[in-house]
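Side project, low priority. Logging it here so it doesn't get lost.
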Amino acid sequence: MWTADEIAQLCYEHYRVRLPKQGKPEPNREWTLLAAVVKIQSSSDQGCDTPDKPVQATKEVVSVGTGTKCIGQSKMRKSGDVLNDSHAEVIARRSFQRYLCHQLQLAATLKEDSIFVPGTQRGQWKLRPGVFFVFFSSHTPCGDASIIPMLGFEEQPCYPVSRDWATNSFVEASGNLETPENKRAYEDPDSHITKKMRLGTPARLVANGAAYRDKQGGDPVSSDVSSPNVPLEKLASVTGIASCGVKVVDVYRTGAKCVPGDAGDPRKPGAAYHQVGLLRVKPGRGDRTCSMSCSDKMARWNVLGCQGALLMHFLEEPVYLSTVVIGKCPYSQEAMRRALIGRCQNVSALPKGFGVQELKIQQSCLLFEQSRCAVQAKKGDSSGRLVPCGAAISWSAVPEQPLDVTANGFPQGTTRKGIGSLQARSRISKVELFRSFQKLLSSIAEDKWPNSLRLQKLHTYQEYKKAASAYQEAWSALQKQAFGSWIRNPPDYHQFQ
């Protein structure tokens, strides 16, 4: 029906053609990361997908996000008008929620075709048969999925990574795979990232993962270190021998920090530096953040869905991703599966409709042209420091104001004096997504509201979220059984109306 490269190419082309220059990196000086949600819609009357007769499907990018930053705890606001987390994956997901809200409005008002059809319960909807969603990210998600084994080159039975890739990946091989600040610099002067690798591992030792092939068309480089079925307690650190028989000499570092009070990283030399499977928060520059890593958030979406608590009022079942596609970058299939699926695979007793999804995970061979690696390769030895783009772009497939460009959590160009005004709100901020939800609610006759909204009087953002009882029950089960140390914002950050 489609390939990982086709998804990557579609997202890259959308970024190049459909998005204006505003918010994009400055050439040869800045870089960014890209994420997107792609809607796949197959004809319901075509039958099964077979090699000799593949099912035809339409592919459409419905949300896009770029960005590498997040704000510190001191800059969070109780009014819900600032974006706490502007990593590309999070921006793409919030943009996707805008799209889902618009599609629910189309369904409820019967104005035109929607991806939703009526459910069996009053006021609730479900996805149209044949519609599913693929999540694309140009880079491995920060946090647990970025703790990737490095394999000993001399013993490697496969083709090595090509010279140009290895040269341009050394900075990332030292641990700079992710996070708002860590993606752009060596944040902590005392960290392993800013020093030579403990084992003196040169750039030529990096392994790019299962889907990468060199220019000569060699076999994929496998970076699995153990079977995905190995219990989590046996994956305390990435050490030993990979499944392809290659010695694991080190790991790519993640700058995401272990949750305060939870188990920490051993920080030992080489492959025992990190403990895998832990919840992590994104680092800040001198100001601790409350933003969980993208690996953690994506694992949560794989149980609770991407729609969030508010839209769950109108849905008979969560909106799940069917597949995650990662662009060309350091990558491990085992690490991705562990981070996004394995940590939650034993969660049980979830409400009807909720479940741990058997998410498909693939990698494309196509490199994002404005990734750090690509920009560095193009820049060559020219002077000037390479820095991450300070802006984040949100785009949604909605008719009104689809584009939203922010910096430091506010619309680009917002002055200190302007903060707090209606113009200083991102369209994907909590308060604006809440406003879109209220607009959807007001467009529907009250007697057609779902029971969760019709039988009680609600006012605040917090009250509406709490009233989505099935969603909250699923979230509570996930916390108790897998994510007990998840950092949650205090209730007073959700009391706006």
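Brief comment: The chain has a mean pLDDT of 83.
Revisit when time allows.
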